[in-house]
Amino acid sequence: MATSKDRFMSAAVRAATQAKRWAMVAAREADRLLQAARKRAGSVERRRRLKRTLLKTGRVLRNAGKAAMVAAVAAGVAAARAELRGRNLRKGRGR
Questions:
Q1: Rounded CA separation 86/88 (Å)
Q2: Residue of 90, 62, 66, 95 lying closest to 78 (CA atoms)
Q3: H or E segment to which residue 54 belongs
């Protein structure tokens, strides 16, 4: 028959083994959560960079559109002046 000391030691070993198992499960869960958080943070940063790039591209395109409108108006004004003066404008640069 086992003594009370043997029963106590057996129970302590079982408790320590169970605690070790739960600690390993907790560590795996923490690792999984950390990976998910890193992935989410990476995707948030990627989304933020993409949004910033799209905003910058939009500004560039707006400015290019404005410049094209100004150039078209200037060309129209030059064509109207040339027509009023009875001259032919050259087509293109230096041709």
A1: 7
A2: 90
A3: helix 4-85
How far is Cα 41 from Cα 35, in angstroms, rounded to an integer? 10
> Which residues have CB under 8 Å from 79's CB, separation 6+?
89
pLDDT digits (tens, 9 = 90+) for 41-57: 888 888 899 899 999 99
Task: Check the CA dihedral 47-49-53-58 and report its sign.
Answer: positive
DSSP 8-state code for residue 2: -
Q: Is 79 in contact with 89 (CB distance < 8 Å)?
A: yes
Tell the residue number behind the tokens 């907790």, with chain if given: 26
CA distance 63 to 32: 47
pTM, rounded to two decimals: 0.45
DSSP letter for 86, please: T
